[in-house]
Write a structure and sequence with these properties.
Low-confidence stretches: none
Strand order of the largest sheet: 3-2-1-4-5-6-7
Mean pLDDT: 87
Largest sheet: 7 strands, parallel
Number of strands: 21
CATH topology of the largest domain: Rossmann fold
CATH superfamily of the largest domain: Glycogen Phosphorylase B
Distance between the termini: 43 Å
Strand content: 15-25%
Number of helices: 22
CATH class of the largest domain: Alpha Beta
Structural class: alpha/beta
Length: about 650
Amino acid sequence: MEKMGEKLRVCVATCNRADYSKLAPIMSGIKSHPEDFELEVVVLGSHLIDDYGNTFRMIEQDDFDIGSKLHTIVRGEDEAAMVESVGLALVKLPDVIQRLKPDILVVHGDRFDALALATAAALMNIRILHLEGGEVSGTIDDSIRHAISKLAHYHACCTRMAEQHLIAMCEDHSRILLAGCPSYDKLLLSHHREDYMDIIKSWLDDKVQEGDYIVALQHPVTTNIQHSIKIYGLMLDALISFNKKTLILFPNIDAGSKEMVRVMRRKGIEQHPNFRAVKHIPFEQFIQLVSHAGCMIGNSSCGVREAGAFGTPVINLGTRQTGRETGENVLHVRDADTHNKIYHALELQFGKRYPCSKIYGDGNAVPRILKFLRSIDLDEPLQKTFCFPPVKDPISQDIDHILETQSALAVDLGGTNLRVAIVCMRGTIVKKYSQPNPKTFEARMELILKMCNDAMRDAVGLNCRILGVGIGGGIIHHNELVHGSTFCAAELGHIMVSLEGPECMCGSRGCIEAYASGMALQREAKKLHDEDLLKVEGMDMKLSEPITAAHLISAAKMGNSKADAVLTKAATALGVGIINILHIVNPSQVILSGVLASYYQAPVQHVISQRALFSVQNIKVVTSDLEEPALLGAASMVLDYATRRIY
């Protein structure tokens, strides 16, 4: 918050009649607390143009001292004039900002003038509070609004959806206030004025009745000016045909407004007995006119925002407000391409009444914003930060990382031994650890963790930076290892090849591993040995020697039919599992590794040739000639992913 005894210097900049309706309640709140705030008011844009009502006078009538008036509008009402107006504002604003030296600039909405304000303040290291960010309307205003949000340090938004949009735009949640629309504070208080009929009659005529007139306000869409002009003409034609008293406001100063005024004059609207054309209406009176109208038509944000608070029927023409949140009182005519379509919408909406909507506010926005302003800590760093979603950290170029050797821990769960290795990026095994494989799952996990911890400790002395631990099989696609969404791709050992097979360590049955792994063959060898069916004449086997898969292979080679049957079943299970992979991903080659690879190669090739589809029967099964393929393959799962460049 501001330092003890010091007031927060708040500069409020207003560009046009529309943003003033939102800023005026905040300005009044700031002015009513002179012990906390100093208010500076800067007026620019269309406020200072006679054709648009010289609306700066209403700011003076509201008893605000205007510190600076900046003539920033380049006339022409086309795209080039808008750009030149932004440039002119950027030329004039630095002197004003340097003179006022505000602690914070309050800027509203999505107008090109507001973009100039935010740009100047950001470049001059002035904190910015942006009102009504995060909303979506559907025109170039969206781009301008979001650009201002990125420049702003703080946000006071109107709806929950807008708040979520700002968070999705990576803005800091702690600097976003869900306040509601400040104009609602005034309009909800003044909705039930006793003199509303006097106001209606003063702007229309003495004969008009409540609910028996239309308020029309249509602005150009700068991304499609010609279409805007066409819709405007069709709207005027429909209103003439509908034959109701209509209060029509001139369009804003955006590119295309001059042509729209020409259309209005060609159709004689200013002289038509049913129409009253005006450049400006004070906001408090405009509220009364909208709240008691039979219908509002056009594309003003007032139609989809303020009008909903009264349940006034609204016809929204074209795309200018397409993305806005609206109440049920709004009927969209997005493709307003015919007079009849707009006329029919008038027939449907005129005279209806809808439930009041408070999507955009509850009347308490200003107290929330003042409290938010008081909480701003001017000692916090001025540089804003963005809350990006988590992403993989980039490869560091710190000298310590460059001097270190990027490495992985590889784990091989063999039937006889557990092995762990530190493997560097070049595929070199820096250090290897081996321990007999315990009999229980808990003991195996405990030993794996201990061996990994030992390796991690040794890696520090060996100047190796461990990027991760790798365990598992692998599928290589387009020269890259396939990881899967949860890094569990290619659990080849747990492909099921039988519904009722032997129990697997994973808890299931019939997995390849339960038939063909070293531990599975060791289990079958022990069964045969216990039944005295393993040893054959001429086989060298010491009584004290532990039974392994090697004894089973040796017995089979020496003619033991029982051992041969076990190995045949194991090779068949492995072959069937590999056929499943061939049918799914259709690789160009199958590489077997490990101590059993050389034994399985020929039987697996035979199973493929007998059982696989014809299209994959000729895929070659080969054995790896790497020194430690299991350990290197496990390490590659880490090294490939952790060091991969992302494009």
